[in-house]
Amino acid sequence: MIIHRAFYREAAQVTLAIAAVLLVLILLMSLTALLGRAARGEYSESIIPLMLGLQLLKKLDLLLGLALYLGILLTLGRWYRDNEMTVLAACGVGLPQLLRPVFLFALVFALAVGAVSLYFTPLASRQIEKVKSESPHRQEIGSVTPGTFMEAAGSQSIIYAAGVNPESGRLENIFVSNLKLGNQAVVVAGTAHAFTEAGTEHKYLALRNGTLYDGAPGEADYRIVDFETLNLRLRPKKAAAASVGIEGAPTWRLWARTDGDHAAELHWRLAKPVAVFVLAAFALVLAYTDPRRGRLTNLFAAILVYFIYSNLLGLGQTLIKKGVVPPALGLWWVHVGLALIAFYLFARRSANKPLLSLPARAR
């Protein structure tokens, strides 16, 4: 049918555009968080591109579901605003005739969301933990960001540099504390650079032209020592073994477990493709735009529905973990309940009745 093809074409374009916008937002937020952790020395900057890709893959299932929901909503909303739905209704094409193309379109996305949720998301979680455990912690002097406090791995030291000499690459105006040289030791130096000792391959931080303050402030044994060179060893932190939690467990392994935590994770993965159909039904109902109420009224209602749906799924997952909801029931009570509400509203919309019976305004 021509109407179906027109819907598929426009809905696909709008959905992909929304997915691209959401993708950029997720990339920016993830990149900001990763750069902050790298600046604190939690792991090397070299793994940021890989971590960014894995973080995106981990959130792709939620991104696709939300993009589909908004894509259908905005597509049909434009049809209402341009009176295309009115023309279709006059030709005998109403909301019931749009059920088939909407759910076929949702089926394609549900299959993609299901594949990502059941396989690629746990795979990404496992790879993230593996990369983090194998990544060397930042300890080279060149990785210190000027104006940022950095914890030196394995030495319980805090390093701060006011700037970097662009010609020599050495840090300038260095502050180092908690050096294990004494009680509350603090070092202030003019310059610093890193070097590797030949033979032992040990890494050191060479401080030049500085002062060591050692001791508790206010006590008589407080020492102040000026020095020309002070070498501090940077001990590499042993990489921890990759810890694969429930989020990274393969889906087939979750089927074999009956405890609350594993059941909650399994139902959460299954909920994402199921939610695609429920959200598509709500988008079909909420797409109606009343010019007298404004163009954004339906969008606000759709966002509210998505917020309630996602929070109910989170609540249901918590109840499964605590044993309040049996694993056999899972999150199906949320899906069925919201689906019944969606189809009740769909029946009222198909009969040209208001979704909610509101009192008439006083003239």
Automatic annotation (TrEMBL):
The keyword Hydrolase does not apply. It comes from Candidatus Muproteobacteria bacterium RBG_16_65_31. It is found in: Cell inner membrane. It is a multi-pass membrane protein. This is Lipopolysaccharide export system permease protein LptF. Pfam families: LptF_LptG. NCBIfam families: LptF_YjgP (TIGR04407). GO terms for biological process: lipopolysaccharide transport; transmembrane transport. Keywords: Cell inner membrane, Cell membrane, Membrane, Transmembrane, Transmembrane helix, Transport.
